[in-house]
Design a protein that fits this description.
single chain; 467 residues; mainly alpha; two-stranded parallel sheet; 19 helices; 4% strand; binds arginine
Length: 467
């Protein structure tokens, strides 16, 4: 576009300053989606080949025209993949860019491709295919992340660390158990991915503009050719539905939220104050001014990407919430949100998988922390219930007094003498010291899903059979 003063003058005086020409340029800029929907080229071509093949099979177009169309589309595919294809903003979107090029390549037969379809069902198809493939990639990525956690859990089934509630030391747990908590979270995410694939597994093509078509098309045939379980059942819903994109973004937001919680733990645990983990050089950076520093940048960025992904979900929900049936151009705004969230999510999962595999676990620091903060106080209370027959509420009170005494003496519970403990409750015997160690504490938590190493190993085996 020329950029001359005379043209600038002819644009709108109030708001046309930045436009080279009049309102047409503005219309083109707001209207065009080719800048981002070119990402859908492979899906668009695949959909068009399936559509043309069906049209010929049904006798709606000739086999000769179909062959020309398919050949032309394959040529365009290689042109785009080699970088030779010239995208034009004037042609608005990927659908019209490809169709215009097809006309140049094969002549009038190109005009028959759009029989019995509209860009409304075409874009619904292309985008659905893309989201479905992205969900399949996400499923694989989550499986790799779960595998990384299973390996670390196995390796550290016996490694004790403090368990936290309110980020205050609560009770000793094992690091293997903590890892398996994330396996549960990412396992749920993966099943959300699988459900989303099932929900969206219907082919939109053939819904046409919104009402279907009078041509004798076979929507079951195109659905099958494109790998869908079947065609959608309502043409109005088909062109106005973006639930598959919303489900992708919902799943992505929940997964990102899990990744962010993990990122937060990595940030906290890698501080000198906690010192539970040492990040590998591969996933940290130095400071340009403070030579001693090793920063958890990758974890911080994963935490931040979550904000971005959640933003995309809210953006698309907001785009959709006021739309009457059926298609409205507002829906063109669906793609950038999904593309951006998909890129962020893929990167975040990959970075996290790398960090989980590479991180050094400082078992000495974890163990030392596990024993501090009176983490076995519950074990003392449980012992009083079991061995001295106290009601739990009384045992809780007695234990509280023992903690206060230990605090006063600046020592741990296990360091109190038997005489100290008996001064609080006469029925305490030296057997109590068996339960005051962190190892005894975790080994005793044998309830289903509990932190005892053998229980954790059972859960690892259950997941290994499903990963
Ligand atoms: N670029 C459009 C989109 O992404 C394609 C569908 C346009 N349909 C229409 N009737 N203008 O939604």
């Amino acid at each position: 576009m020329a950029d001359g003063n005379s043209e600038t003058k002819s644009s709108n005086q109030m708001w046309g300053g930045r436009f080279a020409s009049g309102p047409d340029a503005i219309m083109e800029e707001i209207n065009a989606s080719i800048g981002f929907d070119k990402k859908l080229y492979a899906q668009d071509i695949r959909g068009s080949i399936a559509h043309a093949t069906m049209l010929a099979h049904q006798g709606i177009i000739s086999t000769e025209d179909k062959d020309k169309i398919v050949h032309g589309l394959n040529t365009i595919l290689s042109e785009i993949e080699s970088g030779a294809f010239e995208f034009s903003r004037r042609l608005e979107d990927i659908h019209m860019n490809i169709e215009a090029r097809l006309a140049t390549l094969i002549g009038p037969a190109a005009g028959r491709l759009h029989t019995a379809r509209s860009r409304n069902d075409q874009v619904a198809l292309d985008f659905r295919l893309w989201v479905k493939e992205e969900l399949q990639r996400t499923e694989k990525a989550l499986t790799a992340l779960i595998a990384a956690f299973l390996d670390r859990a196995e390796e550290h089934a016996d490694t004790v660390m403090p368990g936290f509630t309110h980020l205050q030391t609560a009770q000793p747990v094992t690091f293997g158990h903590h890892c398996m908590a994330y396996v549960e979270m990412f396992g749920r995410d993966r099943s959300r991915v699988r459900h989303a694939i099932e929900h969206m597994d219907e082919s939109p093509i053939g819904a046409a503009a919104l009402a279907g078509t009078g041509f004798p098309i076979d929507r079951h045939m195109t659905a099958k050719a494109l790998g869908f379980a079947g065609p959608t059942r309502n043409s109005i819903d088909t062109v106005s539905d973006r639930d598959f994109a919303l489900e992708f973004l919902s799943m992505a937001s929940i997964t990102a939220t899990h990744l962010s919680r993990l990122a937060e733990e990595i940030v906290i645990w890698s501080t000198p104050q906690f010192g539970f983990i040492r990040l590998s050089d591969a996933f940290s950076t130095g400071s340009s001014i403070m030579p001693q520093k090793k920063n958890p940048d990758a974890a911080e960025l994963v935490r931040a990407k979550t904000g971005r992904i959640n933003g995309s979900l809210v953006a698309l929900l907001t785009v959709m919430k006021g739309l009457p049936l059926a298609y409205s151009k507002d829906m063109q705004e669906d793609k950038e949100q999904v593309f951006d969230a998909a890129e962020s999510l893929e990167l975040a999962i990959a970075a996290m998988t790398g960090m989980v595999r590479d991180v050094t676990i400082r078992t000495d620091r974890m163990k030392a922390a596990a024993g501090s903060g009176y983490s076995t106080a519950t074990d003392l209370a449980d012992w009083l219930v079991r061995e001295a027959g106290l009601p739990f509420r009384d045992a809780h009170h007695v234990t509280g007094r023992a903690v206060a005494l230990a605090e006063q003496k600046s020592c741990d519970l296990a360091d109190l003498s038997l005489a100290d403990l008996q001064s609080i409750h006469a029925d305490i015997t030296d057997k109590v010291f068996d339960v005051l160690t962190v190892e005894a504490s975790v080994a005793s938590r044998t309830s289903f899903g509990g932190t005892a190493p053998n229980e954790v190993r059972k859960q690892i085996a259950w997941w290994r059979a499903r990963n």
